[in-house]
Amino acid sequence: MLKILSARQIKSLEESYLEEKGILSLELMETAAEAFCQWYMQNFSRRQDIAIFCGTGNNGGDGIAIARLLSRQGYPVCVYTLGDAKDGTADYNSNLNILPTNIVNKPFSNIDWERFRCHVIIDAMLGIGLNKPLEGKYLDAVKKLNSQKTMRIAVDMPTGLPSDKLVDGEAFQAHYTVTFQTPKLSALFPEHAAYVGDLVVKDIGIDGKYFNGYESSRYFVEEKDILERHKIFHKASHKGDFGKVLLVGGSKGKLGAIMLSAKAALRTGSGLISTFVPGFGLPIMQSSIHEVMVETCTGNDILDSAPENLDRFDTIAIGPGMGTDEKTAEALKNILESYKGKMVIDADALNIIAKRKDLKELITSQMILTPHLKEFERMVGDDVKYPEGRIEKALEFSQTYGCVLILKGLHSLITTPAGIQYFNPTGSQFLATGGTGDVLTGVVASYLGQGYSVENAALCGVYHHGLAGQLAGEDQRRGTIASDVIEKIPETYKNLGLS
């Protein structure tokens, strides 16, 4: 896990690291520049012209060092500076002094924008210390650079984007942001997706022990964190070992939701899947998903009753497509009161709970709730548009009701009652299509049924769901549908080297 720190904490962390290691800040800057260049050279051609825009602070020093290192590897580089070197930091000027003379270095003010052409723009104008809206030459630069129809990459943070709060005004719009050691909080806000682009985190050698002295309950998940949370099954494992899962949902016109959940649970590895649907769904389910057992309620069109003998299941997931009828709400109440095992609560089940305080009181530590932003807003009764407040609201809700909360979206936020919050690294815009939330419900329920803790099921479920979305998007692009995501779930295990 990468601990997420504030801009002030990061500055203090770097100072402590440099002091203990007995190295200069210039050496750490060189390490960061090398990490950036290593990533860049793996992804971009030497035939592409690069324009690096540098301020006179340490972020600009990163940019100057990157220019030198890329030029040394045969990349065509030009540098454009904003500000006077006499106002620059010591590390900026140290790098400027060793910039090879073959690299063109021009003031930003001298650019002829009508004739300006390049393949790649690298933003190294302002770093993580920004605490006010852009103005003057930096605002002018960002507006001009954002209008260029070319690849744009930000070093550490896009210029204009504060590290810890919502942007105010303009900011550089990057296709990639290459940050160092740990993500900055605001780079994880869905509202900042158009500025951050794809987030790349590069290690610059600051060991985890240096983070221990800094208080933070927020973490960015890494692949290795998922690997160590997975259970290992042996060759003699039988279907009972992989869990008995019940999925409750469906209504007229929305039976597809529970079908997607069931297929996702199967592809995630569940041993036995049962569904509980309205009567009309029996022939549809049995003819469509041969591997799933089907039970029905007393009503034909809506869920108007609860299943019997719920203790035969290792976990229950409830909500996809089930509607919010009064009888359905009572069936939900019956299940919440009678079942004491692990549960996933999603979709219409959340919408019912949002309206009834008596049902909120039935939420337990055995439950994982999976709202998207609008569903969460209904549950807390407050505006959750502002990300800083939304993160705090998620923490408050999880601790009040003792549940694990998955707030779905870009870098989905998993919050535990212990006060720990995890940001997920996987996913893409191609998950923004109907039914992918139902897929997540099935994935998480499958892990619960396989015996994972509620925390591990949430973390592994969100990670694999996001990765499956990425893989499906690589193939289908904008044509990606929820069923494509399901079919990519097995490939996520191969990607992680899991059996």
Automatic annotation (TrEMBL):
Domain (YjeF C-terminal) ranges: 222-496
Residue sites binding K(+) per the record: 59, 123, 159
CDD domains documented for this protein: YXKO-related (cd01171)
Positions annotated to bind AMP: 408-412, 437
Highest taxon of source: Bacteria
The enzyme's E.C. designation: 4.2.1.136, 5.1.99.6
Signal peptide: none
Catalytic activity: (6S)-NADHX + ADP = AMP + phosphate + NADH + H(+); (6R)-NADHX = (6S)-NADHX; (6R)-NADPHX = (6S)-NADPHX; (6S)-NADPHX + ADP = AMP + phosphate + NADPH + H(+)
GO biological process: metabolite repair; nicotinamide nucleotide metabolic process
InterPro entries according to UniProt: Carbohydrate_kinase_pred_CS, CARKD, Nnr, Ribokinase-like, YjeF_N_dom, YjeF_N_dom_sf
Quaternary structure and partners: Homotetramer.
PANTHER family cross-referenced by the UniProt entry: ATP-DEPENDENT (S)-NAD(P)H-HYDRATE DEHYDRATASE, ATP-DEPENDENT (S)-NAD(P)H-HYDRATE DEHYDRATASE FAMILY MEMBER
Protein's recorded name: Bifunctional NAD(P)H-hydrate repair enzyme
Gene name in the database record: nnrE
